[in-house]
TrEMBL record:
It comes from the Bacteria. Pfam families: ArsC (PF03960). This is Arsenate reductase family protein. CDD domains: ArsC_like. It comes from Paenibacillus nanensis.
C-alpha cells in the first residue's frame, strides 16, 4: 500500500502573529503541507468550532485567547462562567481575535496554541 508522506494541515492563524509564523515554520519543517486560513477574515463558524473542540477533546475555555484585548474589553473573565457552550461558541465565531491561535487540524487531530514539543508529537513524522 502506497501512502503519501505529506500530511495536509490547515492552520487557522493571524498572519501578523509571530507565534503563528513560528508554528507555520515548524509545521513545514516537519514535512506538512500547510494551508493557511486567516482567523479574522475567515473566522470559523460556531459549528466548525464545536467540531474542532470535539476532535481536540479540550475544554471550551482552551479556545479563548485570554491574554487578548477583546477578552478584556468584553469582560469575559467574569462572564464566561454563566454562559452556555452555544453562547461561547457564538461569541468566538463573531470575534476572530478572541480565539486562541493558532489552531491546526488535519480533520483527525487538532492542536490549539503553539508548543514545539506538542507539535513534534502531533505533527511530526511518524512513519
Amino acid at each position: 500500500m502506497h501512502t503519501d508522506n505529506t500530511n495536509k494541515v490547515t492552520i487557522i492563524e493571524y498572519p501578523k502573529c509571530s507565534t503563528c509564523r513560528a508554528a507555520v515554520k515548524s509545521l513545514k519543517n516537519k514535512g506538512n503541507e500547510v494551508i493557511s486560513r486567516d482567523i479574522v477574515n475567515d473566522t470559523p463558524s460556531a459549528k466548525e468550532l464545536k467540531q474542532l473542540l470535539e476532535i481536540s477533546g479540550l475544554d471550551i475555555k482552551k479556545l479563548f485567547n485570554t491574554s487578548g484585548e477583546v477578552y478584556r474589553e468584553l469582560g469575559l473573565k467574569d462572564k464566561l462562567g454563566s454562559m452556555s457552550e452555544e453562547e461561547k461558541l457564538e461569541l468566538l465565531s463573531q470575534h476572530g481575535m478572541l480565539i486562541k491561535r493558532p489552531i491546526v487540524t488535519d480533520g483527525k487531530k487538532v492542536t490549539v496554541g503553539y508548543k514545539e514539543d506538542t507539535y513534534e508529537q502531533v505533527w511530526g513524522k511518524h512513519e
